[in-house]
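Researcher: Please translate sequence to structure tokens.
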Amino acid sequence: MEIERKWLVNGWPKGLRPEHIYTMEQGYLALRPTTVRIRREAERGGTTAYILCFKSKGGLVREEIELPIDETLFERLRALIGLPLIRKERRDYLLPDGQTLEVNEVDAGAPGSFFYAEVEFPTVKAVDAWSPKAAGLAAYLANEVTEKQDVSMGAYWERTRYDVQ
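Model: Translation complete:
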């Protein structure tokens, strides 16, 4: 189960140092009724992971199953998709309250490039107890889009890859 809030943001957060930086590529094999995607994520100075992910519909709470795959299967699935993958840079920031703020820059330099941020939670009760203001991020996290399906990465894929073919 994945429980997370999501915001559209302007750039990287000021005054925070990233704990981890990843470069990622992801593409979609299916968007409905279940999202099926592949992702390569390489941590700067660390390892590279290849992931096959299944996600149910939903906003704040949704089922998510992530399975590690090898590079060969990733490349076979990439070829099957046959479209340019989405490129992302993700920076993880540890907040004073112990939460992690994940900030992503999507398709840097391309038309429609944007930033979004996420915070994952263990329970819905933890979501209710957390506020951007208390974390000192009220202005940065002002545009919440958690329940807006048209700003999901799958919707972005459809607009920028699938719909243009």
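Researcher: Any highlights?
Model: The beta strands are 2-9, 20-30, 35-43, 48-55, 61-62, 64-68, 86-94, 100-106, 114-120, 143-144.
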